């Protein structure tokens, strides 16, 4: 177990098997390479990506299938190498979300999903081909 002073959750303990190494980091979050997935019953289906290094920020994420049931990502050989050459069964996707004051206007970033390798505990944010509109896709459709 790892004890983390989370800005969002206060001091929390995280199981080692929920920790992922982002060798390339996440753009805009320099110097942070270790994150953990935190789940909270009261926020399902939202999951949290908790930084395990200062400044211990927490990002909100969601399964992209909730936003677009046909969403998929083509991983390159370079992506797979960074992820430790996983099989497709060892990989799962999440997308970062932004929840403004009015949660009805929540958006998901389908342009840059997070790819996780369950077996190697490695992760990577990739940029997919698509239009700029994919950067802020409404989660709750009108």
UniProtKB/TrEMBL annotation:
<protein>
    <recommendedName>
        <fullName>Flagellar assembly factor FliW</fullName>
    </recommendedName>
</protein>
<keyword id="KW-0810">Translation regulation</keyword>
<comment type="similarity">
    <text>Belongs to the FliW family.</text>
</comment>
<keyword id="KW-0966">Cell projection</keyword>
<dbReference type="GO" id="GO:0044780">
    <property type="term" value="P:bacterial-type flagellum assembly"/>
</dbReference>
<keyword id="KW-0963">Cytoplasm</keyword>
<comment type="function">
    <text>Acts as an anti-CsrA protein, binds CsrA and prevents it from repressing translation of its target genes, one of which is flagellin. Binds to flagellin and participates in the assembly of the flagellum.</text>
</comment>
<dbReference type="InterPro" id="IPR024046">
    <property type="entry name" value="Flagellar_assmbl_FliW_dom_sf"/>
</dbReference>
<dbReference type="Pfam" id="PF02623">
    <property type="entry name" value="FliW"/>
</dbReference>
<keyword id="KW-0969">Cilium</keyword>
<keyword id="KW-1005">Bacterial flagellum biogenesis</keyword>
<dbReference type="GO" id="GO:0005737">
    <property type="term" value="C:cytoplasm"/>
</dbReference>
<keyword id="KW-0143">Chaperone</keyword>
<comment type="subunit">
    <text>Interacts with translational regulator CsrA and flagellin(s).</text>
</comment>
<keyword id="KW-0282">Flagellum</keyword>
<dbReference type="InterPro" id="IPR003775">
    <property type="entry name" value="Flagellar_assembly_factor_FliW"/>
</dbReference>
<dbReference type="GO" id="GO:0006417">
    <property type="term" value="P:regulation of translation"/>
</dbReference>
